[in-house]
């Protein structure tokens, strides 16, 4: 689980007329372990409580003033800003704060520049001017980084919370189009990595309907899961029972192996070797997550990255020798982010990169702390993904979305469903290298956080989870190079990926500062074709509805009915061609000209068994199959079939370096029957 750190700073009084003093608070924090009472296979999860012990002045430092800028001018801007704020006119203070930001940035006084950015981002945030607030939150972080501080992290988190996001993803049937997004830069898949798609994983031990009988997961949730999670502790024997039950369910096992006494006892010897041999004897794929969340001070194996790397590499080498069915998973928590990378053991020792990633309505489940409802699980993966996904598959080793807060006695079903949809639809589409998601299916009523992540406690949540995971893209079996049944992938709709064939499903990712979405309107070429006010969001489109050059707008309203975003996407369909029920793919797709569909001549003729020759000197094409010979000239309506002259409705023409001719002529010349489906814009040729 996670802890966030909030550093509070204040700009204290600037003293003197001709000099400006900036006084900073140093926040001393101590980290106190407390037992949350979370018992997961007798595992006492630990969480940090950040306690502010004291605030002491670092001291006052005289701010330098460059030649040509009088100190009293700087002081006047500060004094006028303070006076306006005291009069209740914060808007009037904005120009003065901007002057001070620019002034201090120009002379490299980064801390002072950051502090006045803080004035601006707080003002714009409170005023609901979120674009401006985001700009100054990010600028403030930049200046803190230049000052050698990491105090801007919490500001970036707030910027993400209020950032409006509207993205679209569409289904795609052609693996050549989408599969490259799912591959590492090397093109070589990792151990047990699917070619595309995302493994379904589940921790079910505390689920009253499934428990440790993993075979029940299919009847309870409507689908087999690929990975089942179990916890083990250094010094205990290999978890044979969990391995057997995973095997009975046709699944793999993720083992969170935790050295509760620290890393010193982790050595090569009889215990480790026997454990590895037992793992091999299990006869199933095993994802070994050793000493996870190592970047968090709430675990005993935190604090010595060099020792951690040494022990992780030791385990890698032992399991490589003893148990080839084990994939090594390096799995930090998503926070604190700055402490993640120093623990990375190296590409040669890591098969998968995992992460523990949770969101909750209140910080640490405490309703007296600020609401976290605006935090999205989607953006939380960004940093880890951008750092490691080019070479390693990623998994959410543990994740969950609570639908109820016991501390607040408050129901969050609507919020939970919104984020479950993001977890199982948006994240796999946005992050195609996210290859596994393991849900932490637990009601933490007795823990410190007191959040209910259980899927079976709520009939509404259970039903919605069943609906989401029915998607074939979410895989039920672990095997090298696995693929979803039906071969459907997903692509973002952007300038490079906006053309589809036959039909597609559009799935929007929408995040607004108001958190809850009132309505989504889909406006195609100026006409509203659908409106949705409840989950799941998405729309099926046929190619016949989306001619070339179409414009799709997504209009978002909040719960009060106010429009908060309007995003425009280019979207087009192209003509598809099927020969005897099999889709044909072309370097140059068909086009429609003068109401006639022109299709690639050579590709279709050759698919039908004809031999095709092109004479560049005469710009003529000759095709022969059996006793039939066809000859035509580019840009001429006249064709000859076995010497007999015929006329085309539209002449054959050169498009993108390829000869295109009317579809009916191309399909019927060598004995095919040609059909046309206007709804999906599909030419069918049957021999």
TrEMBL record:
Alphabetical UniProt keywords: Glycosidase, Hydrolase, Membrane, Transmembrane, Transmembrane helix
Entry annotated with the keyword Secreted: no
Pfam (any one): Cu_amine_oxidN1
InterPro entries hit by this protein: Cu_amine_oxidase-like_N, GH, GH26_dom, Glyco_hydro_26, Mao_N_sf
Segments forming domain GH26: 145-478
Residue ranges crossing the lipid bilayer per the database entry: 6-27, 48-69
PANTHER family per record: GH26 DOMAIN-CONTAINING PROTEIN-RELATED, MANNAN ENDO-1,4-BETA-MANNOSIDASE E-RELATED
Similarity section: Belongs to the glycosyl hydrolase 26 family.
Name by which UniProt lists this protein: GH26 domain-containing protein
Species of origin: Paenibacillus whitsoniae
